[in-house]
Fold these 2 entries.
Entry 1:
Amino acid sequence: MLVRRHEKTIFNLVYRMLGDYDEAAEVSQEVFLSAYRAIGQFRGDANFSTWLYRIALNHTSTRRKTLIRRQQRNVAIEDTEPVRDLQPGPAEAMEKKEIRERVQRALNSLEPDDATVILLRDLQDIPYEEVARLLEIPVGTVKSRLHRARQALKSQLASYFYAGRKAV
Amino acid sequence: MNCEEVQAQLLEYLDKSLDRISTKHLEIHLSSCPPCRAEADSLDDCVRQVAALPIVDPPLGFAQRVMAHAREIDLSPSIWQRLALFMQNQIPLQAAAVVLIAIFSAFLYQKMDSKSSAPATQMAVLTDAAEKAKTIPQPESTSTAASKPVKESRPNTAQKNTTPAAVAPPSAPSQPARKTDAESASEGRLETPKRAPISVQEVATGRENSRLIGDNFTFGALPFGGSRQSSLRSAPMALNEPMFSINEPSADVEFVVRRRPAQRRDSAETDNLESTRKSTEAEASPAAAAMRRAAPPPFLSGMIVETRWFTVAPEHFEQFKKDLTAQTLVESETPTAKQEKEFSQKSDRPLAVKVVILPAIER
């Protein structure tokens, strides 16, 4: 029951953090199984979803480091591929898809803490207070970190928006 | 409002959490400042792009797979169960049993030790009885705890071995032969004074463990006389009768006696020695040998209440009682003389006599 209720939110958070569907499926499963094993440690003083998010972020952070090391070994850096050199899409759907992929890559290139706070606040629409509890930092720190993360994301997407607008 | 203030409030402006007045001031600035306007637009684009990311469905059957794995967790043994299984497989049962036995033995030893420290307790009686039961059926054995009565009994045990028909009055020619055997057995044995053969066997003494070296008990450890016929009384009684299943062995007759005061004790000792000498001299004659009787102890020393056990042949019981009365003050006797007479008439077996010795009243 709990799995069904939270599977989408947890899976989407993990997927956006990792950018890989299969990896996200595997890690999400680990998250739920970890929660199942540690359900006795849930004290009930926090929201269950917050507790579950925390487990998910721990697992994702570990897996993300592994993936980064693996990508560095493979030297397949698609991020450096200019967007304007992509084959032009025939339709608006193609453009949207490209934008989503670009945003995803930009998120993956951010620092984990920055990506986390952006995803929690802008994707999951979790209130500042809840984010602060989840990350165990003050609300003010959450806001400043979010502002910094947005600036970094804007920098990552700047070339695309410039090229995209130019292309459009 | 300048550019720095706008940058500071841009986050709240994009979150639409800024109050109305601040929002109006900020928008006025943005309309007049292209860099700030571009910054705000690009950040707003970022927020919208992230928020516009589609919700991705997890793989089909994701929840079922998770639940299946959860069931596997339930079925698989926990870390404690694994540890218990490891212990069960790795540590042999025998080792565990040895540890348990060691702990139990230590517990019993402590308990026994605390009980045996108390004088004249029932436990001591039972323990002594058990020791006697082990040692007395083997008269050759010299490994008994170094107690005088046992040592003194050696000449008689040697005698018993050499002359199986010693119940009959020993003839004059047989006397040298006995001596020869005794000499060859041990020099020390010959040095021990010969005692009058009495048909009394001391079974157990309440304070044998606490007996001092200088304590010259001379009574009751001589296994001979009528006891020979049915072997010694102590061992069968200790082994065949329910001696260990109850707190105290049952006595056929029980005396409560009091030691005589010091002067009287001395005279009693002298009397006893004389009578012993006489009986030793008379041992050569068949008539004297027939007079083997019980010689109760002089109870020379000790101010402690003692419990002693004797086996007395029924035909020698009267003599035993007479001597006991001569050397001690008999305070009570259970059962009465009449009852014990009836008992002895009915049964041929030796009597189990319990003597509780009270300290002398010094005047």
Entry 2:
Amino acid sequence: MPKLVEKRTVDMQIIGDWVEPRTRVLDLGCGRGTLLGYLAQTKEVAGIGVDLDFHRITACVQRGVTAYQGDMLAFMREFPDRFFDRVICSRTVQELDDPTAVILEALRVGRTLTVGFVNHGFWKNRLATLFRGRKLRNQVYTTEWFESRPANPVTIADFEHFCAAKGIRIARRAHLAGNWRSPRRLCPNLLAGYALYDLTR
Amino acid sequence: MTLALLASAARALCPCRMPDLDDVPAGAPAVADPGSVGVVASRDFVHAAPFTFQSGQSLPGFTLRYETYGELNAARDNAILICHALSGDHHCAGRHATDDRKPGWWDNLIGPGKAVDTRRFFVICSNCLGGCVGSTGPSSVNPATGRPYGIAFPFVTIRDMVRAQKLLLDHLGVATLHAAIGGSMGGMQVLQWGIEYPGFVRRLLAMATTSREGAQAIAFNEVGRQAIMQDPAWNQGDYVREAGPRTGLAIARMMAHITYVSDASMDRKFGRRKKGTANGDAYTFDIQFEVESYLRHQGQSFINRFDANSYLYITRALDQFDLAHAYGSVETAFAPVQAETLVVGFTSDWLFPPEQNRAIVHALLRAGKRATYAELATDLGHDSFLLESEDLYALVRSFLEREAAVLVDFSI
């Protein structure tokens, strides 16, 4: 299994552990429906994914995952408060135009919001930027600057500051080492490669 | 052979071509096309018992003309119902004779190995109740008078059309529908199928449609109806078919046709090109632009195949379609649905715009149903659902052919 896929699987397993069986789950930025397909199988969730790309929606349909092609903020506005048991935003926050609006709206339509992101404060990412003086490129971020989607890199320290500033409660967190596998509790903003949070209002 | 090669090369260069149904040159003979269902024949289903319409009016019985492609399997559960749009009919694939100018209206989607694969599915399409291509409608003879019903025909709704289709499927021995598929008015029937017979249909595929005919769409329908009814030859609906309101019906069709395409697609197709026969003088009301000539041709070919009273009845059925009003709310309407739904919208559709297609999926999801929304970026307008697009075919195929069990797959 290639390294990236292995990492992705770890992310999925942790989210899978946090998801309660037979609940209603919304996946923002669902891509090809990998995570929702996994959750449908392991936790029998009723899932719906949102993505912008027609081909990714087709891939979801092929996988048996229901999906919605369109803007995630406009989609969430169509639902009453706490309609979803859990909203998932896995490796999506760094690409949002307006992360505050999306996160607050997700906390309205969802009882819990799970956010997972690559920690740009991880020491290797800091050193790469310091020594190479170039846009971060590694197993996860493989693209050149000129072929990337706009990114808004986030660190663990940034994210926890955001939660405090907005009065969002962090119900659960998982900080993983650079291999995205072993837990990393000490100095996570420097030593953790990946972070997962469960948020509530 | 050379022609066929040229045609396939042209298709490869332009993957998103619209079949121009009233305007295509003679195609290759059906026998040369392995993806075609070949030569097909229509049949008539006669329901000999009284049928009561939603309006409370009734008929002593009715006929539906239909076609089928493929074979019903032993479990009788591989049937797919195709629902046609306002001006469509039951002939959706293959040709009636090898030298037919053009195939059925959805021949690009339906056939052996195509997105709706007739090697795997038993495909059924019927002319709707109230229609004029073999099914009972206002141009049928009223046994009580020996003359066409005209406007004495009962008012028809989308639900009436669906209930009549169900009687046909029962007659054909279909146990459950694998899927119901349709665009525009066909999409309304698909939604109604899921509501009316929830245990009978497993997949709903609705394209370029709405759960509620909006004011703009009603307005267009009304202009078409007025064109017909203001034609003296309409005569309160009492006419013989050859001498009906041909002018009014042609104008109705010309106007409606504009709503099926788009500014961009018309400009690409016609621009401001002048008709070759137009003389140099710009100050006349004779045909000058190609688009005028094209619309007149659309109108003229329509009056030879469609009945004006059917046009009134079917547009009225569209106007009446409002699931929110009929059931209290759209969510209440969708409450009984058991099928999984796929709705496909098209960016340039201004008759049933993407927002109206999205709204169907929002309501289904709010009602706790399984529903997917996909949107194709095209500039061809409402008729985009007839598009020759590999992307659309792949989506339709995935929706129809996916097995119920989901396999473990960690690929990204």
